[in-house]
Amino acid sequence: MSEKNPVRAVADAIAGAVHDGPAVAEGPEEGVPGKPGPVSPPVAEPTKPVGPLPPKADQSGPETVSPTGQPTGAEQARVAQSGAYLTTAQGTRVHDSDHSLKAGPRGPVLLQDHHLREKLMHFDHERIPERVVHARGSAAHGVFRSYGTAQGVTKAAFLGPDVETPVFVRFSTVLGSRGSADTVRDTRGFATKFYTEEGVFDLVGNNIPVFFIQDAIKFPDVIHAGKPHPDREIPQAQSAHDTFWDFVSLHTEATHHTLWNMSDRGIPRSYRMMEGFGVHTFRLVNAEGVTTLVKFHWKPKLGVHSLVWEEAQIIAGVDPDFHRRDLFDAIEAGAFPQWELGIQTFPDTDDQMFEGIDLLDSTKIVPEELAPVQPLGLLTLNKNPSNFFAEVEQVAFHTGHLVPGIDATDDPLLAGRNFSYLDTQISRLGGPNFPQLPINRTHAPVNDMQRDGMHQTAVHRGAAPYKPNSLDGGCPFFAGADAGAFIEVPVEVPAGRKVREAPASYSDHYSQARLFWLSMSPVEREHIIAAYTFELGKCYEQAVKERTLAVLANVDGELCAQVAAGLGLPVPDPSEPLADVSPSPALSQVGRTWPLDGRVIGIVTDGAGDLAGVADLREAVLDAGMVPLVVAPTGGVLGGGDSPVTVQRTFATARSVEFDALVFAGSPAAGADAYGARDAKAGHPRPVTTDPRVLALLIEAYRHGKALAGWGGARALFEAVGVSADDSGVVVADDSQGVRPVMELLAAHRVWERFPSGV
């Protein structure tokens, strides 16, 4: 693209298109993501026929392969709508789509109106069942480049040296419906579809490395408990209710996952700053047939970072699409999200244990201090979907989609997932041919002998879809290992009687929950205490609260005591000795620094101050690989001459939660709409000197640990709300050059010193 950072290069490209491109009208784009289409529209409705516009530069559809995995070489436009004129589904041009066919202007609608019938028929059937879990999600296209470091443990071709594999990655929440908010406290899905030369490999993971349950037979129970109550269908997309806590307090194997969910991991700052885990233990096999047990990890290059709870609550109201927007905008801006794929490796022993940890128990982790994560390759998301339904909604993942070199283990939870995923795709996508949908199509040749069924789009040939056959020349033939066949590892299966039991090692429900708690920093522990107190405070039944406190007593006495104090309940004694465990520093999000790519800086001004300084700071933010958004009393363009400043947010539309840091160019005067009847956030019935909404931005950002800076009168603004220039994470300078150190503060994500701890 250029030797400049991608954000700067994309901004320059967009700005060039804005000012030089003949098809694009000038407007407020200025390199800021969010433009709905590739060109800006005229004020009047266009009347000259033109063909469909191309997608935006940041968008891509699935690669064009046939339903049987053959590259077609076709441009993606060949599978999109075509032609300049409106037609029926059969291609017949339509001259009017605003009026039904009637017997006179006021007469009855005629039954012969085939266009009305077709239009309503399709509309009535354009929704499909949403996912039972992970319904709320977002996704992007990208590429995975292998380092080649996995060759010693797996023969999987896509993990060979410098192999690049197309991917499609979907992020999601578990409990909420499609229309729920992004920032609810919940587990997040992190599902990756690798379109490898050996077939599709789906790594279907989460942002939490453990599950609530050890056996898939409990899946319906935990989801029924977490979903809204069946009588009232509330609450939506959250676990703060009786049925959830009733279940997990009785089903104590959920304790470890619940603690992760009550931590900051339950409310990520961004999908881009979210860790991913394969959860289960998988078995890898190399070219010599040697096997290794592994756990998969996705490590975000930007580090792991979360929202504070108040931010999450505000965002759910003012921008429920926050995570989705953040992902799309970052890619459009050129701040491509990246993760390293890594594995923890363990000897494939008969007992499948490691350092006393049962590797088949999905409620357990192996601390990275015992088994370091070894990097295998780099995932980069670089294209947004061009059609959300066709790609994000119709993508179908399955833990059983494996390739040679990667095999399943006897984890009972994984076994159930391998059974269940096909059922849900048939229900959602209308039949067994869902792999033929463009987003699901493998990039490897398909000759599966499957025929017919609903939504069959392949046109198969031949007379003998069975084996053995001679009529089709014996085709298709079986492949051996030398021809790349997937052959299950011939592991010894332990003999025994049929039982509905679990191994004794599965009965430890508290030691790893305690390990997680002890690994947290003081501020992270405070957030966990607050989360438990809030969630249990939403429960109605006293018995559920008391039972959960009894569970927490077996994790840590201080945790239990602090939550009990918040609930006004007595502190129970533990029912078993507290586990003696060593903390795992790798589990904490606090204490390290990370790249600044794609962070959002709000620059607040009123147009009467140092606009040259605002323009200068904006350029510096772009050069640092971040996204600047100018906030002013009104939209439009501030100033004139050679360096006008375009406004992206107004005092009415901005909220502090959108920004990673705020910089104030002076003390902005009140906007014309700064009164309660127009904007309740203004909060004053009479004119004021400083806009109250600016004060609210400042107060919220300070309370949430955001970095703050200002010049040209900003000191007085800060002092007006009790913020000192000497406070941690506050930079006050004489000019725009002097406030640039505020950007460096973002490497730690937040100003953690502002969060005093009582534990």
TrEMBL record:
This is Catalase. GO terms for molecular function: catalase activity. PANTHER family: CATALASE, CATALASE-B. Residues 21-33 have a biased composition (Low complexity). Keywords: Heme, Hydrogen peroxide, Iron, Metal-binding, Oxidoreductase, Peroxidase. Its EC number is 1.11.1.6. The keyword Plastid does not apply. It is an enzyme of class 1 (oxidoreductase). SMART domains: Catalase (SM01060). It catalyses: 2 H2O2 = O2 + 2 H2O. Residues 87-475 form the Catalase core domain. It comes from Streptomyces zhihengii. Decomposes hydrogen peroxide into water and oxygen; serves to protect cells from the toxic effects of hydrogen peroxide. Gene3D superfamilies: 1.20.1370.20, 3.40.50.880, Catalase core domain. The keyword Nucleus does not apply.
